[in-house]
């Protein structure tokens, strides 16, 4: 039901719209990003959106952050706020 539309090149948005009729929760599932013991090289592989999500989960805003390196630095600085995420 899900794999065939993807293999035919259908966009994820269209697939979600089609599947939502049968199960409205399937496209809202998001998995948390594990942040414990991440190194700078691992953080550099994440997208800025994911870095923002990590900061948001920690209750931190990165005001004035424009570049990806600034977000990575802020995530590293707030490592102590990670707590028991998992």
Outline the structure in words:
The protein has 86 residues and is an all-alpha fold. 44% of the residues lie in helices and 0% in strands. The protein has helices at 3-7, 12-20, 40-43, 48-57, 68-77. The radius of gyration is 17 Å and the shape is elongated. The mean pLDDT is 77.
Secondary-structure element pattern, one letter each: HHHHH
Cα radius of gyration in angstroms: 17 Å
Multimeric organization: single chain
- Low-pLDDT stretches are none
The count of β-strands is 0
Please report which band the strand proportion falls in: under 5%, 5-15%, 15-25%, 25-35%, 35-45% or over 45%: under 5%
Comma- or semicolon-separated keywords:
single chain; 86 residues; mainly alpha; elongated
């Amino acid at each position: 039901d899900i794999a065939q539309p993807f293999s035919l090149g259908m966009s994820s948005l269209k697939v979600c719209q089609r599947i939502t009729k049968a199960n409205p929760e399937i496209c809202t599932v998001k998995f948390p990003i594990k942040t414990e013991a991440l190194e700078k090289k691992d953080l550099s592989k994440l997208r800025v959106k994911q870095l923002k999500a990590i900061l948001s989960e920690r209750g931190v805003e990165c005001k004035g952050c424009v570049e990806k390196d600034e977000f990575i630095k802020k995530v590293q600085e707030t490592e102590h706020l990670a707590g028991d995420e998992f």
